[in-house]
Design brief:
9 helices, five-stranded mixed sheet, globular, D-Maltodextrin-Binding Protein, domain 2, about 250 residues
Length: about 250
């Protein structure tokens, strides 16, 4: 009897261990990867805060579509542009989705996904402005851009144009509308939103000329983070092939 009791207890304990182990494995299998994504939500229609205080826009919808395709979760962290790259390097988040132009200079300090949108720089002026098509036509005048952007870099290339920088691109457009500067340079989707769609500015501002740069946007990653980069690239490829990217372009950019 004693031997039978011991055998039975041993069997029950073994079964319990198997059940607990199986539950642990099941729990691990169900655990979803979560990626923290930084975005400077001041660039409509790419990323901005709506009336309900939600961060929305093209990049945000694209990130969510990528997460769905890759079967992982994302948390959007509204982050000021002036510190966004330093935060990535420090590991405060794993990805930046914020209209980041892929440049050789930036590639030296961070990694990029495959490109997803071409957003060349354009010049915006007041509607009454005459004889201005390019930045060279504004020599001796003030032109604004958001600090740390490729728009500011382009302004700096034109000798004689006075650069004025802003923490947020909306402040530059406000100054332009008020006559404090003579032009603003920004990515074409953002410029189109402010100059053509924004009810405050669409009767006051206009885009002149054509995009004067060829700039592809991509998601930015901490240098060497190959795992997260591959996760995003694989999912982004699915979003492109499914037609979802074209859908989002039609929704936000046209």
């Amino acid at each position: 009897m004693k031997k039978s009791w011991s055998t039975a207890m041993a069997f029950l304990l073994l079964a319990a261990v198997v059940l607990v182990g199986s539950a642990g494995l099941y729990s691990c299998a169900k655990k979803t990867t979560k990626i923290v994504v930084a975005s400077d939500a001041t660039w409509p229609p790419m990323e901005f805060v709506d009336e309900q205080k939600n961060v929305v826009g093209f990049d945000i919808d694209l990130v969510k579509a990528v997460a769905e395709a890759g079967k992982f979760e994302v948390e959007i962290k509204n982050t000021a542009w002036d510190g966004i790259f330093a935060g990535l390097a420090a590991g405060n988040y794993q990805v930046i989705a914020s209209s980041v132009t892929i440049t050789e200079e930036r590639k030296a300090t961070m990694d990029f996904s495959e490109p997803y949108v071409n957003a060349g720089q354009v010049l915006v002026v007041r509607k009454e402005t005459a004889n201005v098509i390019t930045l060279a036509d504004l020599v001796g005048k003030k032109v604004g851009g958001q600090i740390g952007t490729t728009g500011v870099m382009e302004i700096g290339k034109v000798a004689g144009v006075e650069l004025k920088t802003y923490d947020e691109i909306g402040l530059a457009y406000q100054d332009l509308a008020n006559g404090n500067i003579e032009g603003v340079v920004a990515d074409s989707p953002i410029a189109a939103n402010f100059a053509l769609q924004n009810p405050t500015y669409k009767d006051k501002l206009m885009i002149v000329g054509k995009p004067f740069t060829d700039e592809w946007l991509g998601f930015a990653f901490k240098k060497g983070d190959a795992k997260t980069l591959k996760l995003f690239n694989d999912a982004l490829a699915k979003v492109k092939s499914s037609g979802k990217l074209s859908e989002l372009e039609a929704k936000w950019l046209k």
